[in-house]
Amino acid sequence: MEKQRATCKLSIKIPLSIHDQMQQQQAHIHNVHILLVDYINIFLIFQ
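Above: the chain sequence. Below: its structure as tokens.
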């Protein structure tokens, strides 16, 4: 119960804009990763 309360306080302290930026960055990294995997697969197929 105490741990939950502490994490709530922490999450409130983090500005929402920073949190959004982090999520956008993660989404971007994920997209780049998918592109890389596709590229590698295509490269291997045409090898």
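The chain has one domain: 2-45.
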